[in-house]
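Pilot study result, target chain (373 residues):
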Amino acid sequence: MINEEIDASTLADSQKPIAEFRNVSKRFGSVLAASGLNLKITKGEFLSFLGPSGCGKTTALRMLAGFEAASEGDVLLDGEVVNGLDAHHRPVNMVFQHYALFPHMTVAQNIGYGLKQRRPRLPKSLITEKVGKALDVVRLGGYENRRIWEMSGGQQQRVALARAIINEPKLLLLDEPMAALDRKLRKEMQIELQNLQRQLGITFVLVTHDQEEALSMSDRICVMKDGKIVQVGSPQELYDRPSNRYVAGFVGTSNFFDGKVTRIAGTRASVLLENGVEVEGSSVSQVSVAQSVCISVRPEQIKLHRKGEGANVKVLNRIFLGEHTEYLVKHETLGEFFVLSPRQSELNDGPFNTGDVLFASWEASAALVLDSN
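Predicted structure:
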């Protein structure tokens, strides 16, 4: 009986959010930077705030860190309201976009800086030990005496990470930390961050405008627009079941065809497009007859054929991307849209060329009926 109670208590603790926004808004004068945010961040997850510049994602991160105070609502950390708690008293560390490292200090001095500020003071031997362990975690063992300006961009990012994790925060906030890295190094660091998060078990919260970065790294993504949360879900949920046109267009790439709903049958809906063509699709969100909507079809879900019941598209442009080839095609009534063809398909059937007249098709399940907003 005691063990059952302990297990139930442990389970309940694991389900408690490590951080939470409860109807949080933030104003800067007349500008509403964040509006009515409600979000629970669970322990040990990797969550990303995704959206364009000015959508409120960095403001949300800074309110978690304590660098900005909420104008309305409550910010909670580990179940406690922290609205009036200073940043340095919160169990949170932050990695900034430009790392904010001290150029006049060595790698070890940068990493151990936070430990040296603790009161009562920690023994030097303990600080040295902790710095060494942090360096090993980010695979920089032996670099403790290097100067910051002697390190590459990727190495500097690791130093910033080591400085953040050495204090064993409950929440690690990442403010576009890979924006300054080149594409190849950015991909390498994405993998390293994922591995580091799993190894440490710390909750990571990332701010990014890079959809690929958010999709590849996150357990959940919080999509924001105009200071509001539009949709929260796993990368696959957001990609396969976006709540509206904005999410579908921001999480991945999609072709959109505008029209109005003519009839609904269960989860299927027929849409009369503006060009007079009627298309059937899956209604992801609640829609009604005569409502203005859009049909969303991902480029990789459209197939190009040389054979079909009458060719219906012309290839306007072809861009070879290595593992895929992107085609811009034009349909006589649907207009222009993109098709993404996998490399294997081209190896089997041969590439299509600019000027080719082909047959394009997609499964009915690939067409999503979405709110136009």
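One observation from the pilot: The chain has two domains: 10-240, 253-371. A full batch analysis is planned for the follow-on phase.
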